[in-house]
UniProtKB/TrEMBL annotation:
It comes from Marinithermofilum abyssi. The lineage of its organism: Bacteria, Bacillati, Bacillota, Bacilli, Bacillales. It comes from the Bacteria. This is Regulatory protein YlbF.
């Protein structure tokens, strides 16, 4: 049986990371991120969303018992939809989701090659992914 030592394994991991960094998904994500950072309207929307999110986070600490919980949640969700309608932010969010999908799939492939029972952490804050299938700066 051919065994690989830890140094060789890490070198292979670095090669995989380099290949991912050269992918279309990373190129598109970085370009979209730069456009968001340079766009004044996008930055204003992001700051406003962060304020709404802070209000929701404060309400969320107490959960449904907080008197403004539902209002704060609805406002944050509505504003997130509004942000997505901004072409610069929408493109960024789509690129981010595609890159996250790629990274999640690579993680699942590696984990499943070891065992079907290994849990694979995924970045899916909105709960969009289905199990074993397929996310402003």
């Amino acid at each position: 049986m051919n065994t690989i030592n830890m140094a060789d394994l890490l070198l292979e991991a670095y090669d995989l990371a380099d290949a991912i960094n050269e992918s279309e998904e990373v190129r598109r994500y970085l370009a979209a991120k730069r456009r968001v950072q340079e766009d004044a309207q996008a930055q204003r929307l992001i700051r406003e969303f962060q304020r709404k999110k802070e209000l929701f986070d404060d309400a969320q600490r107490f959960g449904h018992f907080h008197p403004d919980y539902h209002k704060a949640k609805e406002e944050a969700e509505a504003f997130l939809r509004r942000m997505r309608e901004n072409p610069v932010i929408g493109e960024y969010m789509e690129a981010e989701e595609q890159l996250d999908e790629l990274l999640g799939e690579v993680s699942r492939i590696i984990a499943r090659s070891v065992s079907d029972t290994i849990k694979v952490p995924v970045n899916d804050p909105r709960g969009l992914r289905k199990a074993n299938k397929r996310r402003c700066g």
